[in-house]
Amino acid sequence: MKLTIKEIAQVVQAKNDWSSYKDQEIHAIEFDSRLITSGDLFLPLKGVRDGHDFIETAFANGAVLTFSEKEIEQAHLLVDDNLRAFQALAKYYVSKMKPTVIAVTGSNGKTTTKDMIAAVLSEKYQTYKTQGNHNNEIGMPYTILHMPDDTEKLVLEMGMDHPGDIDLLSSLASPDLAVITLIGEAHLEFMGSRRNIAKGKMGIQAGLGIENELIAPADPIINEFIYDNQKITRFGADEDIYVTQLVEHRDYLTFNSNFMNETISIPVPGRYNATNAMLASYVGLKMGLTEKEIKHGLEHVELTRNRTEWKKAANGADILADVYNANPTATRLILETFQAIAPNENGRKLAVLADMLELGETAPQLHASIFETLDLDILDKVYLYGPMMKYLYDKAAGNPKVVHFDNLDQLTEAINTDLQPNDQILFKGSNGMKLFQTIEHIEKEI
Ligand code: 2GN
Fold first, then answer.
1. Given Cys at both, which of 207, 285, 405, 435 links 170, Cβ 3.0 to 4.6 Å?
2. Can you say how many angstroms the Cα of residue 82 is from the centroid of all Cα atoms in its chain?
3. Containing domain of residue 184, as a range?
4. Is the CB of 107 inside a 6 Å radius of any atom of ligand 1?
């Protein structure tokens, strides 16, 4: 990473005397102390636990510097708010490294569109994109600060949990081009009305500049939020850009667009994906790629599996699955989100929580601490699975809604017996706990 300690201290306007620290290039910035390696800068954030508690571990793992909101013994940069300092640093870094920034937001399909744009641009340029779920006020700055030094094109996914989120992210990243894939439906968003969602997504203009192009759906709900004189390209039937000659197959599809000659084939089914690929082609053309390059890029696209997915059980129950990574903060966030969603009519809310792995010595306490987030007035039943989740079970001490399993087959069997068509069920746990097997089972038969 092309940032030195002195440079960082100046950007974040550190309030302590750091002049005695040896000026050196920082290797990387991490907020999870488990990921710290030699030469890194640690970022303590407020999660289930206060990140300041992990400063010692971070230094033991090789950190040479940490942000801190209080005076401490280790080499640190004293700031009022670690997250704000981190965001300011990301804003500085993107303006220093000067990649072309492409911002992507939308309800569904933003991850796919991001992957497709990156696949296209990679044909010609050093391209870096948002990894995993790093699309929020922490994840997007993290993405910026983790781009390789030679990055020419940076494709940033911007996610929205609250009104105003996209506005902030866009202001930090100052995109050169922005894409809104879709204005979603209110009930999927926990954001209020569809108009509010549109307003939130249109916050992408905040850092864009009216001379930079916004690509947006031809959905009239955005009209009142378009900035005066904003350069805008609308997509949809008979608009500026659109899909033509769509042919769907079981595992792939082919399409054309009104602005290209080549017919393109992509290795994924679903009409939405034709639109996403059409948008990626358009971005490719804008960035100077040939049609052949675009076609080649899209034919070889590898799509990220969405980490948080809505699925359906074979009996119709709604499944919210997030089973690829787990740390205490992420577990708490998904629980809060799930608990905030209204139940289906005559339906119950069930949660399945499996062990979060590799948490070290304090794993028992960290598991037990999830109890503070569990709302047993809202949840009708909680299935805990794994040796560490026993600590959470003990914390729930005899509440009949909470059950514990040591065996995945028995867990699957119990859910199979209990789950009703109107229920919603959340799954969360580390990948190593294999909850995906239970999910696959209830998707197939129940
Ligand atoms: O939701 S997130 O996963 N997120 C990341 C960014 O993109 C979007 C999504 C998320 C994760 C967010 Cl938003 C915020 C935070 Cl702070 C985190 C996060 O990583 N939280 C973590 C913890 C908390 N709270 S990671 C982590 C690992 N840590 C335990 C607490 C914790 C392992 C650990 C355990 C014991 C010690 C040190 C580390 C220890 N040190 N024990 N004694 N000394």
1. 207
2. 20
3. 98-299
4. no
